[in-house]
Amino acid sequence: MASARHGVREAPGGLALLQELLNTRAPMAYGTDLLVTADDAQPWLTEALNTWSRVSGLPAPTLLISSSDLRSLRRLRTTFENVTLAGGNQGPEGALPPADVPVSLVPDADGWVRIVPTGRGTRWLASALWAEALLAQQAGIWPRLKLCNNFECRAAFFDTSRNNSGVWHDVSTCGNTANLRAFRERRRLMGGSGALPPRPTVQGPPSLI
């Protein structure tokens, strides 16, 4: 799955499908963009939809990807990147365009109304993704789906910190990289070389000889 390539915690429930779409972008240091060719996109989408169907309890159609579908999926990914960033006040200025996708409201045997995706092809997928975004907002977990603050990474991760303060998908990689970059920039502005500060040396006791 796409999110596993980035080594991130999977979002709960059906929100993982949206996270999967965001994480089809190439990992920072290796791998490929899964939405460039149908050979990469098809197995990813089939597995992602099977997982979504199992989690949601709803049937998922079999979607066969064409070249025009790849363009639609990439546009859809960009749209949800902007929506995710807007939730963290990092998105583009102004109102985002409307989703313009259909959904069905279906009551179950117990009278609970469910949001069921409708449509064909990538329109069905868009319907499912917007429905999951709405359900995540209603459940109060939407703000925890974030894009890594490292612009060279942008992995989508689910923030499990108590105060929802996470900004890196992995502090040991993207966090340290960003801190090192900031340090070197400060040194550059101060006229320094940008080298790492020397490690302090520990002086031993004076010799008695």
From TrEMBL:
Q: Where is this region: Disordered?
A: 190-209
Cross-referenced InterPro entries, in alphabetical order? ABATE, ABATE_dom_sf, Znf_CGNR
A Pfam family this chain is assigned to? zf-CGNR
Where do the TM regions start and end? Answer: none
Zinc finger CGNR domain: from which residue to which, for each copy?
144-187
What is the name listed in the Swiss-Prot or TrEMBL entry for this protein? Answer: Putative RNA-binding Zn ribbon-like protein
Tell me which species this is from: Paractinoplanes brasiliensis
The record lists the lineage as: Bacteria, Bacillati, Actinomycetota, Actinomycetes, Micromonosporales
